[in-house]
Amino acid sequence: MNCRATLLGGATLLALSAPAFAADTDVIIALNEELETVEPCMASQSNIGRVILQNISETLTELNTEDGSLMPRLAESWEDMGNGTWRFHLRPGVSFSDGSAFDAADVKHSIERTVSPDLTCEIGAKFFGGMTLTTAVVDDATIDITSDPAQPILPLLFSTLTIVPSETPMEFTRQPIGTGPYVLSEWNAGQNIILDRRDDYWGEAPVVTKATYLFRTDDAVRAAMVPAGEADIVPLINQNDATNPATDFAYPNSETTYLRLDSSKAPLNDIRIREAMNLAVDREAFLGTLVPADATLATHMTPPTALGADVDLGVPPYDPDRARALIEEAKAAGVPVDTEITLIGRLGNYPNVTEVLEALQQMFADVGLNVKLEMVEVAEWVEHYSKPFAAGDKPAMVSAMHDNNRGDPVFSMYFKYACDGLQSGICDEELDKLIADATAATGDARAEAWRAAFQKAHDLWADIFLFHMVGFSRVSERLDFKPTIATNSELQLSQIKFK
Amino acid sequence: MKKFLFKRAISSAISLLLLIVAVFFLSRLTGDPTDLYLPVDASQEARDNFRAINGLDQPLIVQFGRYVWDVLHLDFGDSIRRARPALEVVIEAFAWTLQLALITMFLVSLAAIILGSLAAFKVGGFFDRIATFFSLIGAAAPDFWVAIVAIVIFSLGLGWLPTSGTGTPLHWILPIAVLFIRPFGLILQVVRGSMINALSSAYVKTARAKGVTPKKQVFVHALRNGMLPVITVIGDQAAGMLNGAVIVETIFGFPGVGKLMIDSILQRDFSVILAAIMVTAIAIFLMNILIDLAYAALDPRIRY
């Protein structure tokens, strides 16, 4: 009897433990943190974007991250009507996952919702701050969108704004409805999110039929889930775990690491000191040691694929002798070069950040500068990074990592370099004008204008640029999928194929 | 008994109130959640608007008054990050922690009491030496290391157990095993020490002289008397688990209250911090009452 009971218990346990039947076309994706919301207007946050963006909720336009071009998505075409107005011609025959038809009224509502002060959507705050958007529905398939001030890149901005049905309430939703190829079937808080493929999607049916998203904070565990057969894609693994060439991929993640110098305080207000600090850094020494070998040396704030970022600024050479000479020259001119400069780093900002900053501190010390390193938590770091700078009257530099995956420097340059830019450590009238000109320019003139702005920021030695970073993903060998620069913010299930 | 429970409830309520006041003001000393919630490029207008929506633009004392008023109406506020009632978020997470703690502490108590008693029966014997050796190693082993090694061996190496997650009974084995080790080592040592005292007492010697079997000497005569300090330590360990097993929850992807609390503190999600502290404090208060009742049940001299 005891034996039978034991066998029965064992069989029950096995039955309960067996994974539910999974189709060959199902995938499991392990994210590095739990989603706190599945609200489409928050899809600019990496993990929310990886679940929602273009899977559940689509946008009017879509950025091709390979060549920087803009592709149609829910809008088939668009045209500049002048005076800040753009006309979007919407795709016909599109329906939401709740069965309702997609039309211009949905676009109008989505815009109003995203920029509504009652919701504080990240997409609204991040991409549509400082402008007023007005809409005019021409007909069901046509909408005019006007921005004040005029935005030459308005169609690009609409590659970020997720479209929801006009019935969506003006509060965060836990049941996102979209036009995308997938529908949210289950959300078990803290455990998983499940998306199922829609049968009535307007576009080509993707191969993946079901996607389950799991949340694992621990890097080692997340990486172990692929060889253990518990996950197919881990978008973010630690570089130290990326040891298997068959499954592990490095991809440019559109992040640029740099030190932001507060040039309003002595001695950082002296251009010789800023140049000396740039020459004191042996950037090559970091590659393959503390920073992944696949990272590249940065010369400006955006990834090299951004508009106008093809200007050759040249990586500052490692020249400690010249750096010492510049500091001596500044000292002779009365610059207080011995003043302590605080280097503020953010714990966990990127792998090995503490070690990188310790090495930089030593490099600055080697040329005679007095730099003190302070590593702080993210909340405290933000107070140093954004104005008014928490360091007060003391000279400081902040280690930061900036993400621009939208292909246009406008998302970076104003905030980082304009006199009124929230994270700008420099104030230069000419640079302000160059940024304003580039922001308003269109076509080839826009690229040229951004090149000029990049050159000016470089000539001012406004920052100490370090690296265009890479991220590491682990992908099961059964999948035909290679992470790209877009993987940092989205993970389109329709791009996943099986071998 | 009723008077005792009433007194305990009053004293716990006062403690809880002081705790809430302290946590309310201390958590706000860490700063404003606006900078963490909005993108770094957000305009000042968006920041001001966020503060107004969440009542963060009000003086601290006004925020506190409003919070107390809401709590008195059983409204613990909304989680800023999750846009959901904070209490709902906390209860969801606490249910996981409670299950983990109850199962683990039951197994730990059972195993430690049996093995500790047997070890005490023949001090210095082979079994005692083995039990002491492993319990000391267990009490000293760091959770995160044991967890990672267990995953490497049982999930990646042998493929017997899933690395992490919550889907099936098998998913519970590694987290419980890792949580088990440290309190097991500690409680086993306390049981052993307490039982050595009890077994050397006059009434056990008398029982032995009367020919009572060793099993009865240990588990009937000595155990009940040796249990008082053990109950105290079990309560202490259980309280630690009810506050959340942060490391185990993080490594094994268990959505418990410990990780929720840490995340909420880092994100300055004040409503969740306060709701979590309140829920766990009430749970610990209830558990302490149970421990007091257990004292009375074990020792007839204790009466409330």
Key terms:
heterodimer, A: 499 residues, alpha+beta, 7-stranded mixed β-sheet, 4-stranded mixed β-sheet, 23% strand, B: 304 residues, mainly alpha, MetI-like fold, two-stranded antiparallel ribbon, 13 helices, 2 strands
Walk me through what this model shows.
Chain A is α+β, with helices and mostly antiparallel strands. Helix content of chain A is 26%, strand content 23%. Chain A has helices spanning 2-17, 46-52, 104-115, 122-127, 154-157, 219-224, 271-279, 320-332, 353-366, 378-385, 410-417, 429-440, 443-459, and strands spanning 26-31, 61-63, 70-72, 75-82, 85-90, 132-139, 142-148, 182-188, 192-197, 210-215, 233-234, 248-261, 296-297, 341-346, 371-376, 396-403, 463-475, 479-480, 497-498. In chain A, strands 11, 12, 13, 14, 15, 16 and 17 form a seven-stranded mixed β-sheet that branches. A four-stranded mixed β-sheet of chain A has the order 1-10-9-8, with no helix packed on it. In chain A, strands 4-5-7-6 form a four-stranded antiparallel β-sheet, with helices on one face. In chain B, 77% of the residues lie in helices and 1% in strands. Chain B has a domain at 94-268: MetI-like (MetI-like fold, Orthogonal Bundle), CATH 1.10.3720.10. Chain B has helices at 2-29, 34-37, 44-53, 60-72, 86-121, 126-140, 143-157, 170-199, 202-209, 214-242, 246-252, 257-267, 270-298; strands at 78-79, 84-85. Chain B is mainly alpha-helical and 304 residues long. Chains A and B meet through helix 1, helix 4, helix 6 and helix 10 of A and helix 2, helix 3, helix 5, helix 7 and helix 11 of B.
